[in-house]
Design brief:
Structural class: alpha+beta
Number of domains: 2
Oligomer: single chain
Number of helices: 7
Largest sheet: 5 strands, mixed
Length: 393
């Protein structure tokens, strides 16, 4: 089934904009909906109550959830007090006991810092997702391109995401401090075990050493668990912030167009190692030797009028392709019709190249890495208007 922009159509299940034709149904499954007769009259659709609301309310169920943070409260095992026996070994035990006590006091402070960071991160994440959900709700019901209310909310979301990034920096600083404590705990455990070999000890010294060794062991385990949980939190939050930055870029593009596209294509494109594009997006922009051969284009965009609304359909096609083939690379080809005199052909070539560059910018704004796209140009005796073809390889 081919959807052409030169005939007005209505699609019931997909948000396809006029201007795109889906050719390769093996890559892009056929979308539901049939061509409808054109009445020739625009249909006015009144704004919904949700769109009229300047501050839409979003239920918690509809909002995306931030990644889960660790929940362990790290409580130190404590240090058992004991009297100094007066022997050389007894004095060594007292020094080790004091050092272990000082270490555990530092660990208590580390735990308090961790719980404070987690509380702040959770609050910042919830606030961020609330703002994003409000933007998506407004876009979903429909709004004007470049809505200043949404632009203001987007700026707020960006600041909130930066606060989460600052929380990650605090976690990294805390992890460095805990790593130093880990080295200290390992040193204390080694020193405690070595004290068994010192001469001049009495039975009480060895009894105290055994208690001290057990408590140092538990402290070592506590520090290791704290480091592991911090590492997991940092890893999850770093990946989360990276994905959300890509989503914010795509969301900015959605606000500019006044329609909801979806999450960033980068979230799918980075699922696997990207093949290297055979041509640079910029170096091949003036190439005239592209040969489609028997390849079927994934999308054909015909620029037969100003402001062709192709982006929603383009996003849908590329997103579905990446769902089935995450390693896909895309060729954006500017097609120039070979009609008219030499001056007319040259003018069309310039327009086709600009259209292809516009499509390339749209793809990168949607989150598709530039390494996944190549840009080239060709001519066609069958084309009647400037076109841009997107191929998959």
């Amino acid at each position: 089934m081919v959807y052409r922009i030169t005939q007005p159509i209505v699609l019931s299940a997909a948000l396809l904009a006029a201007g795109c034709s889906f050719i390769d149904e093996s890559l892009m499954p056929a979308l539901t909906g049939e061509e409808a007769a054109d009445s020739g009259q625009p249909v006015a659709i009144a704004a919904s109550e949700a769109e009229k609301n300047p501050d839409p309310t979003v239920s918690g169920a509809g909002a995306a959830l931030p990644p889960t943070l660790g929940s362990t409260n790290f409580v130190t095992p404590g240090v058992t007090p004991a009297a100094n026996t007066g022997t050389f070994v007894g004095q060594k035990v007292a020094v080790l006991r004091n050092e272990l006590g000082a270490l555990q006091e530092r660990l208590k402070l580390r735990n308090e810092q961790l719980q404070q960071i987690r509380t702040a991160t959770t609050g910042n994440s919830q606030t961020y997702h609330g703002t994003i959900a409000a933007i998506n709700t407004r876009l979903q019901v429909g709004t004007t391109p470049g809505n200043p209310v949404l632009i203001n909310q987007w700026n707020q979301a960006q600041l909130q995401l930066e606060r989460i990034g600052a929380d990650i920096s605090s976690m990294n600083s805390l992890a460095n401090a805990v790593a130093s404590d880990s080295s200290m705990s390992a040193y204390l455990l080694e020193s405690t075990r070595a004290a068994y070999g010192l001469s001049g000890a009495i039975e009480e010294d060895h009894r105290q050493l055994a208690i001290l060794e057990d408590e140092t062991n538990r402290t070592v385990v506590l520090v290791d668990r704290l480091l592991n949980e911090l590492s997991e939190d940092i890893s999850r939050q770093t990946a989360y912030v990276g994905n959300e930055r890509s989503n914010l870029t795509t969301l900015s593009h959605s606000i500019k167009n006044g329609e909801l596209l979806g999450s960033s294509l980068a979230n799918r494109a980075y699922l696997s190692t990207a093949p290297v594009a055979s041509t640079s997006p910029l170096a091949s922009s003036n190439s005239q030797n592209f040969t489609a051969g028997n390849r079927q284009p994934l999308v054909v965009i015909r620029f037969d009028r100003p402001d062709v609304p192709y982006e929603q359909a383009l996003y849908t096609a590329v997103n579905r392709t990446l769902q089935g083939r995450p390693q896909s690379v895309f060729d954006v080809v500017a097609i120039t019709p070979m009609q008219g005199g030499a001056a007319n052909v040259a003018l069309n070539q310039s327009k086709s190249t600009r259209n292809a560059q516009r499509v390339l910018r749209s793809l990168t704004d949607m989150g598709l890495p530039a390494s996944r796209v190549s840009l080239s140009a060709s001519s066609s005796g069958q084309a009647v208007t400037n076109e841009v073809h997107i191929y998959v390889r």
